[in-house]
Write a structure and sequence with these properties.
A two-stranded antiparallel ribbon has the order 1-2. By secondary structure, it is mainly α. Helix content is 76%, strand content 3%. It folds into two domains: 87 residues, Arc Repressor Mutant, subunit A (Orthogonal Bundle), CATH 1.10.10.10; 140 residues, Four Helix Bundle (Hemerythrin (Met), subunit A) (Up-down Bundle). The chain is built from eleven helices and two strands.
Length: 240
């Protein structure tokens, strides 16, 4: 694919995201409730100033994410998002700028902690020399960034992804990738605090050694401490 083709794809994806964001903003402004019928494609297109094809594609995405339901010969209806929509819907909302609620943050941290626990356990059993070398490289970049006073959010995510990849379970990788997208903006805020960056880097260094030594019990204890620290920080931050 050429650079021009890639730019076109990115432009279309961005436009599609903007239409989805516009529809969701409209639903919020109108305070539609689960079971309420959405306006027609034509009405939404006029309200958003876009073509009907763009609205149709956006609605198809929202149907896939179980945010709305399409009923033949009837229309499109809003679902009960907290009970029926997919986690990807929550990630999408965050991607387009929505702020998750304190409850959503707490609940995602609870689920993620158990997935991370499984990931480090499998990583201890299945890691390869290449996996270990990849983690070492990320930790070296982390140290360099901290020395210059930079933000390690990107490296922190890279390390967690490397650990999950070392578990060699593609479903686990895809699942946790969604959680990392969901927390991306919060991580950037968290690691503006250098103390948090140093603590995370220190724990990652210990985690690498536990995975290298295939010490499952120590790796599991550390990841739970790691997640507890993040949960405590965000609980305090969101209450302010």
């Amino acid at each position: 694919m050429t650079n021009a083709q890639e730019a076109t794809v990115e432009s279309r994806a961005s436009a599609g995201t903007n239409v989805i964001a516009g529809i969701l903003a409209y639903l919020q402004d109108r305070r539609l409730q689960p079971g309420d019928r959405l306006p027609s494609e034509r009405d939404l297109a006029e309200r958003l100033g876009v073509g009907r094809n763009a609205v149709r594609e956006a609605l198809a995405t929202l149907v896939t994410l179980r945010v709305v339901e399409s009923r033949p010969n009837s229309g499109v209806y809003l679902r009960h998002m907290s009970r029926e929509s997919s986690f990807e819907a929550l990630v999408l909302l965050t991607d387009i700028g929505a702020t998750p609620t304190p409850t959503e943050v707490t609940e995602t941290m609870e689920v993620r902690a158990h997935l991370e626990l499984l990931a480090v356990s499998l990583a201890c059993q299945r890691r390869t020399d290449e996996d270990l070398a990849r983690m070492e490289t990320i930790l070296a970049r982390t140290d360099e960034t901290l020395e210059t006073g930079g933000n390690i959010a990107e490296m922190d995510t890279d390390f967690h992804i490397a650990v999950v990849d070392a578990a060699h379970n593609s479903v686990l990788v895809r699942t946790l990738n969604a959680f990392y997208r969901f927390t991306a903006r919060r991580r950037a805020v968290l690691f503006e605090d250098r103390t948090q960056g140093l603590a995370s880097a220190r724990e990652h260094r210990h985690m690498l050694e536990f995975i290298r030594n295939r010490d499952i019990s120590k790796a599991e204890r550390l990841i739970l401490q790691h997640m507890d620290r993040a949960t405590t920080y965000w609980s305090s931050y969101l209450e302010t």
